[in-house]
Amino acid sequence: MNEKKIIQIAANTKSFGLEKKFPLKAKSKNKVCGDEISVEVNKDINEMRFETQSCIFTQASAAILANHLDKIHKLGLENVLDAIKKKLNGETVDLPIQIKDLDFLTHKDHKTRKECIALPFNAVIKAIHD
Predict the structure, then answer these.
(1) Total domain count for the chain?
(2) CA-to-CA distance for 121 and 78, rounded, in angstroms?
(3) Per-residue pLDDT tens for 7-42?
(4) pTM tops 0.85, yes or no
(5) d(Cα 69, Cα 62) in Å, to the nearest integer?
(6) Is 31 helix (H, G, I), strand (E, B) or coil?
(7) Which is it for the CA torsion 84, 85, 89, 92, positive or negative?
(8) Whole-angstrom distance, CA of residue 97 vs CA of residue 55
(9) Among 18-32, 57-71, 86-100, 116-130, which is the least confidently predicted range?
(10) Nearest to 63 by CA among 75, 76, 49, 77
(11) Hey, how many other C-beta atoms are within 10 angstroms of the C-beta on 26?
(12) What is the C-alpha end-to-end distance of the chain, expressed in Å?
C-alpha cells in the first residue's frame, strides 16, 4: 500500500468543511469501524462539501467524490459505487469513470477498507434520496 499517495489524495481539502449553503444533507456512519461523514450537496448535484471523523481512506474517497461529483452523478452514483465494490473484491471490472486517484484507491489491496471508501458515496446517495 502506498500510504503517501493516499495521504496526498486526502490532503485535497478544497471541499472540506460544511458551510450550510446546500439544501441536500446527510450524515452516515460506517458500522464496521465507526467512521462518520457529514455531507451537503447542492440541488444540481454537482457540488458538495463534507466533514469527517474518519480514517484516511474515507477522507481520500470523499475528496475524490467532491472533485468529480458532477461526472460521477451523471454516470449514476449507485452504478459507480457498485463497480467500486466489485473492483475492491478483486473482480475484473472497469470503473465507469476514469479517475486516476479513484483507480488507485480502489485497488484490491485496499479490499479491507471497502466500507471506508464507500462511505462518502453512501452519504451523498442518502442526501439525494432523503
Answers:
(1) 1
(2) 8
(3) 999 999 999 999 999 999 999 999 999 999 999 999
(4) yes
(5) 10
(6) coil
(7) negative
(8) 24
(9) 86-100
(10) 49
(11) 18
(12) 36
How deeply is 29 buried, as exposed, middle or buried, from its count of CB atoms within 10 A (0-12, 13-18, 19+)? Answer: middle
Q: Which residue has the cell 469501524?
A: 33
Write down the residue that cell numbers 458538495 correspond to.
48
List the one residue out of 129, 127, 128 whose CA is nearest residue 38: 127
Q: What's at 105, amino acid-wise? A: L
> What's the Rg (C-alpha) of the chain?
13
- For the record, the C-alpha cell of 81 comes out as 459505487
* Residues 94, 12: Cα–Cα separation, whole Å: 25
Cα pseudo-dihedral 40, 42, 72, 13, rounded to 10 = -50
Q: Kindly report the CA angle at 99 between 84 and 44, in degrees rounded to 5?
A: 85
* CATH assignment at residue 31: 3.90.1010.10
Distance between CA atoms of residues 51 and 74, nearest Å: 23
Strand spans (E) along the chain: 24-29, 36-41, 48-53
For the record, the C-alpha cell of 111 comes out as 479490499
1 three-state secondary structure: coil
Domain that holds residue 75: 3-129
